[in-house]
Amino acid sequence: MVIQRVIPRVALLINHSTTLNKAYNSRNVVLRLISTSQCNFAERYFTKKHEWVEVEGKIGIVGISDYAQSALGDVVYAQLPDVDSVLSQKDECGALESVKAASELYSPVSGRVVEKNESVEETPSLINTSCYDKGWLFKVELTNDKEITALMNESQYKEFLKSDEHH
To answer: To the nearest 5 percent, what fractions of the chain are helix, strand and coil?
Structure first.
């Protein structure tokens, strides 16, 4: 995102620089700047219990929100659902423990667990340092993609966090 702001500024500086313009124009050099745009990532959906799911095709990647990991504190133990477990939406499917609290983990969607993040089981602190990237918890093959409509998108979740309802 920073690069997107810097490239146009550099282009303006180069175009307004008389020394560079004379050097480039005298040699008929064409200056091309490559711009990057933000990739369209899969949208993340949230539950009222602060789990999230990011859907890529028929696979949902599940984790807990930044708010949840912050509220838990330093996570020291993660019990994740086993591969091939069949889950229904809102099923309790694991637990997270921190130095100050323990919390059940609920599945935001229905499906069959196809992978669990063994790195998180070995190093639970990944949830605190990278809850949306390296700290994901498990992947599930969705059996009912319509369940996503019952979840909150990112902006709805941010509004939910501002309300008293989430406490």
So the answer is: 35, 30, 40
